[in-house]
Write a structure and sequence with these properties.
By secondary structure, this protein is α+β, with helices and mostly antiparallel strands. It has 4 domains: 121 residues, NusA, N-terminal domain (N Utilization Substance Protein A, Chain:P, domain 4, 2-Layer Sandwich); 64 residues, Nucleic acid-binding proteins (OB fold (Dihydrolipoamide Acetyltransferase, E2P), Beta Barrel), CATH 2.40.50.140; 76 residues, K homology (KH) domain (GMP Synthetase, Chain A, domain 3, 2-Layer Sandwich); 58 residues, 2-Layer Sandwich (GMP Synthetase, Chain A, domain 3). It is 36% helix and 30% strand. The chain has 11 helices and 15 strands. The strands form 4 sheets. It has a 5-stranded antiparallel beta sheet with strand order 7-6-5-8-9. Strands 1, 2, 3 and 4 form a 4-stranded mixed beta sheet that branches. The longest helix is centred in the middle third of the chain and has 29 residues. The chain is elongated.
Length: 342
């Protein structure tokens, strides 16, 4: 049984990354608690798990005293010196106990503690992995779709996590075993339930990371993503700028014949994307953000407020359906925009 135990610990370390030393500490504590429950809490014992010899030993510890009041925890000096002349008053005498005397109840209690320790370590490792990937994109596999609330259970490679309906792109449909890209927007630590990971396909960070993955100039740091404004499933505006005057940031993101932007749009289930050239001049930035509308003039009314003039036939285009274009432009630029026809 001891060999099987240590073989199992080796397997846990290999497959789940749970250190053998960590599990040995937990098992020793579990066996100690089980033994004390069986024999009484006033029992002093020491449990040793030896990974080299692959065995388990239990030692009863008794204090050397002149007059014994509790034979479970104390031993007389006379009896102690019968075992070894080196024992003195106040010292500790250890006597090895046979582990086969553990009852089934003790073994069951120890097993429960061991299982809990494994779960706690798995959660801890999962939290570390998710934390290292926070605000990044991971590829996950669809395991289960809950018809009642639309939530999707995903295998992330670390553990299973849930993509809530509120974090999905409106209208998208998933299929079992489908590979999907998700954005890790938040990781919360909860001792009872493990890592609470918020996966999202509606977060604006997903679009930003997709551009970083698909556009070589962004990966190389030549083109920078300055801001993203998104209404998932409908439209996104993304502002980019170039550090190289010879590189057009908008053209770099679109690619030849639109090949680069096409792959991103496909991943976003056909969501429209407006790529806007960023400018340090807020007037120029606002004018570009209102594309595809043509802007006649932008006048600042305050530090983050402006008045925009457009031709009469451009007014509805500048505002957009239910105000979406103006709303996204305001979000992208961080500026309150008042649009008027000329």
């Amino acid at each position: 049984m001891n060999k099987e135990l240590f073989a199992a610990l080796d397997l846990l370390e290999k497959e789940k990354g749970i250190p053998k030393e960590y599990m040995l500490e937990k098992i020793e504590a579990a066996l100690l608690a089980a033994y004390k429950k069986e024999q009484g809490n006033n029992t002093n014992v020491r449990i040793v798990l030896d990974p080299v010899k692959e065995d388990m030993r239990v030692f009863q510890q008794r204090t050397v005293v002149e007059e014994v009041e509790n034979p479970v925890t104390e031993i007389s000096l006379e009896d102690a010196q019968k075992l070894s002349r080196r024992h003195t008053l106040g010292g500790i005498v250890e006597t090895e106990l046979k582990t086969k005397n553990f009852r089934r109840l003790s073994a069951t209690n120890a097993k429960q503690v061991i299982i809990q320790a494994i779960r706690e370590k798995e959660r801890s490792l999962a939290i570390e992995v998710y934390e290292s990937k926070r605000e990044e994109i991971i590829t996950a596999t669809v395991l289960k779709i809950d018809d009642s609330d639309g939530a999707v259970v995903l295998a992330t490679g670390t553990s299973n996590a849930v993509l809530q309906k509120s974090e999905q792109i409106p209208g998208e449909v998933f299929h079992i075993d489908e590979k999907v890209k998700v954005f890790i927007s938040e990781v919360l630590k909860n001792k009872e339930r493990g890592p609470l990971v918020t996966l999202s396909r509606a977060h604006s960070g997903l679009v930003k990371r997709l551009f970083e993955l698909e556009i070589p100039e962004i990966q190389d740091g030549i083109v920078l993503v300055k801001a993203v404004a998104r209404e998932a499933g409908s439209r996104t505006k993304i502002a980019v700028m170039s550090r190289d005057p010879d590189v057009d940031p908008v053209g770099a993101c679109i690619g030849n014949h639109g090949t680069r932007i096409a792959s991103i749009i496909e991943e976003l289930r056909g969501e429209k994307i407006d790529i806007v050239k960023y400018s340090d001049s807020l007037e120029e930035f606002v004018a570009a953000a209102l594309a595809p509308a043509e802007v006649r003039s932008v006048t600042m009314d305050g530090e983050r407020s402006c008045r925009v003039i457009v031709a009469p036939d451009q007014l509805s285009l500048a505002i957009g359906k239910v105000g979406q274009n103006a709303r996204l432009a305001a979000h992208l630029t961080g500026c309150k925009i008042d649009i008027k026809a000329e």
